[in-house]
């Protein structure tokens, strides 16, 4: 391209935008304001979208007029895979749904299959499940707190939450040999018991942790920018939140007291524990933050009570046709080995029927809808993942806010794409 | 029969098909033509008051004449109950009323059902694929006739496809 061509193109362009009359250039007034909406693609490679999420934002100036989430970049067909495996084989797949909080997915899935098979879990196993689930909730909320603040620009708290999260991940490592993809829950119980070393480490953490939660709060609540960017942002009314099917802290932030741990008698060892369910008032991002921080304190309380109340006993239900034999017997006893092999390769015979079982994960209600026609494999398994359903409300919650608030809204859902896209 | 099912049967004698209670879950099957009216009733009746959308799902029964089963599960936070509303449609008439105007959350969840099972929702504001790509033309993945294994280069290896 030569010089004259360049000049020509520049003038041509300026002509269309600024409406300059070439014969009387001195009459050119202020540039005309363009009034059409601007389309902006955010993601799928944006660091604040927590994975591979794309949102098409329609902007008027800096205000969001409409936003269209484009999902499915991490779709792996987990529901289809479930139809091809036995019930026991699906447990490791659930780890990969919400890969930040694998334990809670295992828990929700095992509870659903136990409801299908009508199995009662022994009491010690219920306590162990509750303890580990609450540890996972602490990890989830720490992860959320750090990344959400990081998205908004408050970087410090990220290092503090991740430092404390590391202690619990090492604890998981000692418990089951994995930090993230844990697969520790089993249908009818848990894989192994807590050792004295694990219990003493957990108690030490519980003594250490509450002062750290205070510290996180100081970092954020004294940060005027962070407070200005969360208070009154992404407000949703209680009625709309329910209609959208929001759950967990996202729903409780709007003032709806709905927690499956207490609702309809609760599950696992929660009915034996004394804890509060924090409920917000305004339905904005700040209230949802406050609920999660308060839940950290409540989780500490629950774990302490469980550790105190827990009695010795079996950790696996005694239903040999469904539950796995103890691992040490598998290696020494032929019958147990055959049983283990048959349960994994052929599965157990589930009764025909359909159930839905929801569990209060730290993001919201994680549910499994299982249709069985008998035999060892589920006929259909639907996963009700809170992240996917929360994304349905994204357009509603983002309208009228600034483009920078879109990042806050992803953060406030605690979105994980592995669970959203399945 | 469960009191809620009794109530629905009384209000909609023509639309009601049957009600099953199993493991504490109540499932009410209605005719496709009655879905929207029953949903409005569940949402607005002060005694039932189902304000919370739990999930929308679908099941494929390829051997039946009415092949697809669409499932909406709704709950009431105040009254503390849950109802599973189901309907059956045939493959030729693969269309049901959308409940997006009753519960907002049905928008995304019904889009997923359309994407995965190919069931169309009448009056849905934005019925597009959601998890699969927009231009995906190879069918609906959660139908039972969709292959579990891929159909690409793997099939060219004979040893992978040997029937045992």
Structure description:
The complex is a heterodimer of chains A (422) and B (164). By secondary structure, chain A is mostly helical. Chain A folds into two domains: 1-34, no CATH class; 77-421, Cytochrome-c3 Hydrogenase, chain B. Helices cover 49% and strands 11% of the residues of chain A. Chain A has helices at 3-18, 78-82, 91-95, 102-117, 123-152, 156-176, 196-221, 224-230, 238-244, 249-252, 285-309, 327-332, 334-345, 386-392, 394-398, 405-413, 417-421, and strands at residues 38-42, 54-60, 63-70, 185-186, 189-190, 353-360, 365-372, 380-384. In chain A, the strands form three sheets. Chain A has a three-stranded antiparallel beta sheet with strand order 1-2-3. Chain A has a three-stranded antiparallel beta sheet with strand order 6-7-8. A two-stranded antiparallel ribbon of chain A has the order 4-5. In chain A, helix 5 packs antiparallel against helix 6 (156-176) and helix 5 (123-152) packs antiparallel against helix 11. Chain A is globular and about 100 Å long. Chain A starts with a helix and ends with a helix. The mean pLDDT of chain B is 85. The longest helix of chain B has 12 residues, at 106-117. Chain B is elongated. With 164 residues, chain B is α/β, with parallel strands linked by helices. A five-stranded mixed beta sheet of chain B has the order 1-2-5-4-3. Chain B has a two-stranded parallel ribbon with strand order 6-7. Helix content of chain B is 19%, strand content 28%. Chain B has helices spanning 3-11, 35-44, 106-117; strands spanning 16-22, 25-30, 52-60, 68-76, 81-89, 95-97, 120-122. Chain B has a single domain (3-161), classed as 2-Layer Sandwich (Beta Polymerase, domain 2). The chains are: A mainly alpha (422), B alpha/beta (164). Chains A and B meet through helix 9, strand 6, strand 7, strand 8 and helix 14 of A and strand 3 and helix 3 of B.
């Amino acid at each position: 391209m030569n010089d004259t061509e360049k000049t020509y193109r520049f003038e041509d362009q300026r002509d269309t935008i600024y409406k300059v009359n070439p014969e009387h250039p001195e009459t050119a007034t202020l540039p005309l304001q363009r009034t059409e909406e601007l389309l902006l693609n955010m993601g799928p490679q944006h660091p604040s979208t927590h994975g591979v999420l794309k949102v098409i934002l329609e902007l008027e100036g800096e205000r969001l007029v409409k936003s269209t989430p484009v999902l499915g970049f991490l779709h792996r067909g987990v529901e289809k895979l479930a139809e091809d495996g036995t019930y026991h084989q699906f447990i490791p797949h659930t780890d990969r749904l919400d890969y930040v909080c694998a334990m809670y997915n295992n828990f929700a899935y095992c509870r659903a299959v136990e409801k299908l098979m009508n199995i009662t879990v022994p009491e010690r196993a219920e306590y162990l499940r509750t303890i580990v689930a609450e540890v996972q909730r602490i990890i989830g909320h720490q992860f959320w707190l750090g990344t959400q603040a990081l998205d908004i620009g408050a970087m410090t708290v990220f290092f503090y939450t991740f430092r404390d999260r590391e202690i619990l991940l090492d604890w998981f490592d000692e418990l089951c040999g994995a930090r993230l993809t844990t697969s520790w829950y089993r249908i009818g119980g848990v894989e192994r018991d807590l050792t004295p070393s694990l219990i003493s480490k957990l108690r030490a953490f519980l003594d250490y942790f509450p002062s750290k939660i205070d510290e996180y709060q100081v970092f954020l609540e004294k940060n005027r920018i962070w407070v200005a960017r969360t208070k009154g942002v992404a407000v949703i009314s209680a009625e709309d939140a329910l209609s959208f099917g929001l759950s967990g802290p996202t729903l409780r932030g709007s003032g709806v007291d709905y927690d499956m741990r207490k609702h309809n008698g609760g599950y696992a060892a929660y009915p034996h524990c004394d804890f509060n369910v924090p409920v917000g008032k305004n339905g904005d991002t700040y209230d949802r933050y406050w609920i999660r921080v308060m839940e950290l304190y409540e989780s500490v309380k629950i774990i302490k009570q469980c550790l105190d109340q827990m009695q010795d006993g079996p950790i696996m239900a005694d239903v040999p046709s469904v539950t796995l034999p103890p691992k040490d017997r598998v290696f020494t006893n032929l019958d147990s080995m055959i049983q283990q092999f048959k349960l994994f390769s052929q599965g157990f015979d589930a009764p025909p029927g359909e159930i839905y079982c929801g569990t209060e994960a730290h993001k919201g209600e994680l549910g499994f809808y299982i249709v069985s026609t008998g035999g060892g494999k589920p006929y259909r398994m639907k996963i009700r993942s809170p992240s996917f359903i929360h994304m349905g409300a994204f357009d509603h919650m983002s309208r009228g806010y600034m483009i920078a608030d879109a990042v806050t809204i992803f953060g406030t859902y605690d979105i994980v794409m592995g669970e959203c896209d399945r | 029969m469960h009191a809620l099912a009794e109530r629905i049967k009384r209000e909609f004698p023509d639309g009601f098909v049957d009600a099953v209670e199993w493991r504490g879950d109540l499932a009410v099957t209605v005719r496709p033509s009655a879905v929207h009216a029953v949903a409005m009733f569940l949402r607005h009746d002060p005694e039932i008051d189902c304000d919370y959308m739990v999930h929308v799902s679908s099941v494929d029964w390829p051997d039946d004449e009415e092949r697809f089963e669409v499932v909406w599960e709704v709950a009431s936070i105040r009254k503390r109950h849950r109802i599973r509303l189901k309907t059956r449609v045939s493959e030729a008439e693969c269309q049901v009323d959308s409940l997006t105007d009753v519960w907002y959350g049905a928008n995304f969840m019904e889009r997923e059902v359309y994407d995965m099972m190919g069931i169309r929702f009448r009056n849905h504001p934005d019925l597009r694929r959601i998890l699969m790509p927009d231009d995906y033309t190879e069918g609906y993945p959660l139908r039972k006739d969709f292959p579990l294994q891929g159909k690409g280069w793997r099939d060219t290896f004979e040893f992978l496809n040997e029937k045992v």
